Amino acid sequence: MKDMRKRSVHAAMAMAAIMISAVFLAIPFWSNDSDAATPYDDVYRDSLTPDGKRLYDGLVTNASNINLDQFTVNLDNVPDSDLVSQALHAFRWSNPEFFWVDHIECTVDDTKVKVRLVTISSLDGSADKKAAIENMYSDIDKAVSKFVTSGGLRYDLIKGMHDRIVNTTRYDTAAAADSDSNPNAFNIYGVFVEGRAVCQGYALAMYYLCDIANIPCMNIVGLGKTSSGTEGHMWNYIMMDDGLWYCMDATWDDPIVSDGSDMLRYDYFLVGADSVSSGKTFLESHVPDYSGALSIFEDAIPKTTYSEPKKLSDKDFLIRPGSEGFTLLIGNSGDGAYTLQRDLIDPSSSDNILWKIGSSGKGAIMAGGMMFILSEKDLEALCSHMVSEGTDTVTFDSSVRTVPMERPLLSPIDRTLYTPIVKDGNGTVYTDLSDISADMSMEIGIPYEKELLDIDMLLFLWELGDQGKAYRIDMERYDNGYAVAKVDKLSGYYVASNNYFQLSPLLMAIIALGVLSTLIVVIRAVISLRRKKKRKNSRRHKH
Asked: Could you point out which of 37, 81, 320, 480 has its C-alpha 20 to 30 Å from the C-alpha of 116?
């Protein structure tokens, strides 16, 4: 699968002049949009020499203005072919909004670089190329408006981008074999408008959408190695909120199916460098071209051996598609109190924890021996309430005491009662979750070690109400030593099992064995009686 459009940088020295020609493709987003700026947008530019940056900036300025005439960039020194080639590569990978640029002609004369942006061949028949390009931008803007570009958590945004690209784009095998058959297969116009692209189009489109959402993303070029061979390829590295970079290949998540059906996979979605698919780790099947195009950029590209913020994760991102009900521990002080800082749940904060749980997941806090489980919606409600109350903290804790549980005809049994305590930094103690938000509810987990004959479906939580009266609450689930139930009040709770008599496990086992033995005796007796009756009836028929 020939994913990469063939490009070359031709150098020829003539007197003090150098002519360099290269092919460039880009992402459809206006470069002057302030929302597009991300911490790693200029990672390739930052690797250039001062003169390389001047050439790069000149390209961006004139491409932003759709300048199709020749222009001049003045440098401090006479550049060599490597400097020009490096600037052109950086321009291509960091500014793919200039999708209409097919290649760039550069003539170097002393310290002056004369440049002309050559448009893609599909514009050759246009009487007014600039107007045609602006119309193409308009087409892209309309298409992109249907994609996920704002709101939500970073994970949800990226999954929406990935799914939309894969579901609306078909891999263009004809263009992979012959780039002239569809020049737009190598840029984002092919993805967003025409719905046909090769790997370069997929990667640039992902970069473009991440840029809109202000998510750090990089385009990586190199070799794609499969069982059928090795070919040029392009993919992405994306930084998540944990400060680590993860691997993304939307192209290989959109495989060509023999029956022509469409397919959406997540084999290469936010995976780690050591993640294995089709018998190869990601870095075994995706080999960056450090010996060629990426040679001077190698130190800027994330690797597993680096530290943050350039560390490439060796493991998959902690949330995987389909991980419904995903729960992550976001605070743990065991039997003591835990204070949750507002900046940890503030979506506008770079230190927030919402990214960890996703919109379908939950965050767990261990405090006072209990487990407090909150959804994304609950955490956001808690954050909003803290803002309105002017506090930056909420403390989770519990009080524990022993209470007698009344039993008809039997003496009371002591139960361990856990009362959740939630209070804010102003000292306000909440007894009802509606005091925080009308829609807020959360799950609590009461520690309980199941006994020999305990059955999950017969475990219940009991809420101790007014005047010591207990009310039964259905248990949501038994989770690793905790009986979990959804509550809206911060009352006292204890767990009651189906072992009503509270007998010891050994005695319960003896009783169970006795009951089982009795059942066996009864069954055998019934069978014996039926056999005797059958023989008696048989003799009667003979007479």
From this structure: 37
Burial 390-419 (b: 16+ CB within 10 A, else e): ebeebbbbbeeeebeeeeeeeeeeebebbb
Q: Hey, CA dihedral for 28, 34, 36, 42, is it positive or negative?
A: positive
Number of H helices, E strands in the chain: 11, 26
**Can you read off the two tokens belonging to residue 63?**
């491409």
DSSP state of 65: T
Which one, of 242, 235, 218, lies nearest residue 155 by Cα?
A: 242
The phi and psi torsions of 433 (rounded to 5 degrees) equal: -65, -20
Cα radius of gyration (the chain): 33
**Is residue 274's pLDDT more than 70?**
yes
- Rounded to an integer, what distance in angstroms lies between the CA atom of residue 109 and that of residue 78? 8
According to DSSP, residue 431 is labeled: S
User: Which DSSP helix (H) or strand (E) runs through 223?
Assistant: strand 217-226
The one-letter amino acid at 303: K
Nearby residues of 421 by Cβ (< 8 Å), 6 or more positions away:
337, 368, 395, 396, 397, 398, 399, 429, 490
Integer distance in angstroms from the first to the last C-alpha of the chain? 89
- Distance, CA of 248 to CA of 239 (rounded, Å): 10
Would you say 503 and 511 are in contact if contact means Cβ atoms under 8 Å apart? yes
Angle between helical axes of 81-94 and 50-64 (0-180°, round to 10): 50
Nearest to 154 by CA among 216, 198, 108: 216
Q: Which residues pair with 422 in a beta bridge?
A: 396, 430
Cβ atoms 29, 80 nearer than 8 A: no
**pLDDT value at residue 251:** 96
Structure token pair of residue 347: 């979506």
Residue 379 has, within 13 A of its CA and on its CB side, a CA count of 31
Which tens digit of pLDDT belongs to each residue from 288-319? 999 999 999 999 999 999 998 899 999 999 88
d(CA 344, CA 471) in angstroms, rounded, equals 35
Q: What is the mean pLDDT of residues 507-532?
A: 80
Q: What are phi and psi of 78, to 5 degrees?
A: -75, 120
290 vs 299: CA distance, rounded Å: 10
Interval 460-518: pLDDT, tens: 788 887 766 778 888 888 888 899 999 988 988 888 765 445 444 555 567 678 788 88
Task: Please give the single-letter amino acid code of residue 228.
Answer: S
